[in-house]
Write a structure and sequence with these properties.
Layout: H1 18-43, H2 51-64, H3 68-76, H4 85-98, H5 103-127, H6 136-142, H7 148-151, H8 154-175, H9 180-191, H10 200-212, H11 225-228, H12 230-247, H13 263-274, H14 286-311, H15 313-323, H16 337-360, H17 365-368, H18 374-391, H19 397-418, H20 420-438, H21 450-455, H22 467-471, E1 482-486, E2 489-494, E3 513-519, E4 524-528, E5 530-533, E6 547-556, E7 563-572, E8 578-589
Antiparallel strand pairs: 1-2, 2-6, 3-4, 3-7, 5-6, 7-8
């Protein structure tokens, strides 16, 4: 089988001695990974969110099929605009191995995709003869709480993290690994993981053509050119086959906004998506900071590409001529693998940003910088750093390393502080949602449907040992609340003075804090609350100083059955001690909409 040849030039580095550098680099890379996985393990809970229910429904429909063709249809059937074959296969495998679908397992596998992404970057650095020390900033940029939504959401972790790994791995296989076979396999996995994985095919084709026509790819003048283009032919055949299967019976999904916004809004959305990492920084406007950082990253990316095109213009010219020549020239250097890898990976991220801006800007620009998209912004930051470290003059390379270490460490610390409350709130949101669909009367008796009980077990939650307290009558001091009518329902908050005696320190208590208990004569609901907190500057950038007394909470009418509800405040201490306070406040709900469309 023919392979693409890669002959890296010998590079001299001013790094520490190899053994010392390798040890320090390995430890430095491992610390952010271990911290990330430890935080994930502490806060993650086996509760489905949104699309996770679609994976459980898939298991049910898969079991109902009696033929192989029917089961394959369930595996490949369209989900929104995606073909989530990989996600469904992982869910099916987890169910077959453990007897129940565990959403923590899905999160874990998705999060491990970040480890694979880090390994690819380390592979690039090693191919360029740089120490693993240079990978520490990459680990710090990728492994932090900026990903709080993806890392604690099974389906999102599997889809959003894995597709980036498969695409980058495909480009690595083409440019560095001399493995166009694995590149094709990775491209297929990317396509069957998320819709934006389709971008790998046109970008990969260009990279393959540029690599195939390089003089270094031919061992002699007698090397058959037809054989050299075999990878290209197989790539094109695979692309046509996969794309044909992907769009067979494809239906345009509903749900995208009819208005996409003005041209200015689309450009802002594109830049905000690219620079979404800036939300972790202690700034007043996260959206403005994201747009600004996105603009700087776009300028840097296109600036590097322009410089590469100018620097390697002769190699590019020879490569293009080689595409149309029966006997390619042997003399002359080809296009560096590092340049091709950068082009491919950067174009994928910029292309994904364009697709998301086009389809999501109509929902509002704030949605563009949501946590589940930040993997693209952080990956581009890591890509820019790695390319600069590889391409920079040897005399200043150590300064790039030191600057990368300082900048990525600060960013990592800011991210953990900025998104700690989001991570805690998300856990509370998951557990309260589980309570609401488990207890559908005013008695502590679970009422799960048979399908849910068959395919997944409920997670252990903070309310399990205190159910009687939640459903009993309340005799405690009144906690006054401020309730404001909102388009979605009600905004509820309490001030610092009103919250005296309520728990405020959530730093080391994953279930500690305040919750809203909403009770009618028919049933009760729990809602999570956002603990009040100081700015990072006022907290002196220490997690123990972040949280202050008081909270804010949202009560969505769409989550409530029609009726009039009393509001109570439930507090959980770090030792899981529960108190329920009356508020003497009432809210009403018109009931849940009857035309809610689901994708499961």
């Amino acid at each position: 089988m023919p392979t693409l040849q890669y002959n890296p030039k010998t590079r001299l580095t001013s790094a520490p001695p190899r053994s010392v550098g390798r040890l320090l680099g390995s430890v430095g890379v491992a610390i952010p990974v271990i911290l990330f996985l430890a935080v994930w393990s502490y806060y993650a809970v086996n509760v489905p969110k949104w699309d996770d229910h679609a994976l459980r429904a898939f298991l049910y429909y898969f079991d109902q099929e009696t033929t192989i063709s029917g089961k394959l249809y369930q595996l490949f059937r369209q989900h929104n605009e995606h073909r989530i074959v990989v996600d469904r296969f992982v869910a099916l495998l987890d169910y077959q191995v453990f007897g129940k679908l565990n959403f923590r397992h899905l999160m874990a596998i998705g999060n491990l995709s970040l480890v694979g992404l880090l390994v690819v970057f380390i592979g690039v650095l090693r191919r360029e003869s740089l120490s693993v020390l240079y990978a520490i900033p990459v680990a710090l940029l990728i492994f932090n709480l900026s990903h709080w939504e993806n890392m604690f959401w099974g389906m999102a972790a599997l889809q959003n993290f894995s597709v980036v790994l498969w695409v980058v791995l495909a480009f690595y296989g083409i440019t560095y690994g001399n493995r166009w076979g694995w590149a094709i396999a990775s491209a297929i996995l990317a396509t069957l993981t998320s819709g934006n994985g389709l971008l790998v095919w046109p970008i990969g084709l260009v990279l393959l053509l540029l690599r195939t026509s390089e003089p270094a790819d031919f061992k002699s003048r007698n090397y058959p050119k037809k054989r050299a283009f075999l990878p290209v032919a197989i790539w094109v055949f695979s692309a046509l086959l996969v794309l044909g299967l992907y769009f067979a019976d494809y239906e345009k999904p509903e749900g995208n906004p009819p208005l996409r916004g003005s041209t200015v809004d689309l450009i802002k959305g594109w830049l905000a998506f690219i620079g979404a990492a800036a939300e972790a920084l202690p700034v007043k406007s996260a959206l403005s900071a994201s747009i600004l950082l996105g603009a700087l990253m776009v300028i840097s990316t296109f600036g590097i590409m322009g410089w590469q095109l100018l620097t390697h213009r002769l190699a590019i010219s020879r490569t293009i001529r080689g595409l149309f020549s029966s006997r390619p020239a042997i003399s002359g250097a080809g296009i560096p693998a590092g340049a091709l890898f950068f082009w491919g990976s950067a174009l994928f991220i910029l292309g994904t940003a364009a697709v998301v801006a086009w389809t999501r800007t109509g929902f509002g620009l704030d949605l563009i910088i949501t946590s589940r998209y930040k993997i693209y912004s952080l990956t581009l930051l890591a890509l820019l750093y790695v390319y600069i470290a590889v391409a920079i003059n040897q005399r200043v390379r150590n300064w790039v390393l030191f600057g990368g270490l300082a900048g990525s460490f600060l960013f990592n610390w800011f991210a953990y502080l900025t998104f700690l409350d989001d991570s805690i709130w998300f856990r509370h949101w998951q557990t309260t949602n589980q309570f609401n669909w488990t207890y559908t009367t005013n008695r502590p008796t679970p009422a799960l449907d048979p399908v849910t009980q068959h395919y997944s077990d409920p997670a252990r939650a903070f309310y399990d040992p205190i159910l009687k307290t939640l459903f009993n009558s309340v005799q405690a001091p009144i906690i006054p609340l401020t309730i404001t009518k909102a388009p979605y329902g009600y905004a509820v908050q309490t001030s610092t003075t009103e919250a005296t005696g309520l728990p405020s320190d959530q730093t080391f208590g994953r279930d500690a804090g305040s919750y809203l208990l909403v009770r009618s004569p028919k049933r009760s609901y729990l809602f999570p609350a956002w603990q009040n907190q100081r700015s990072l500057l006022k907290a002196r950038f220490l997690p123990g100083n972040l949280f202050t007394p008081g909270f804010k909470a949202d009560v969505w009418q769409s989550a409530l059955e029609a009726g009039t509800y009393q509001l109570f405040v439930v507090t959980i201490s770090t030792s899981n001690q529960c108190k329920v306070y009356p508020t003497n406040q009432l809210i009403t709900s018109a009931g849940q909409p009857k035309d809610i469309k689901k994708n499961w």
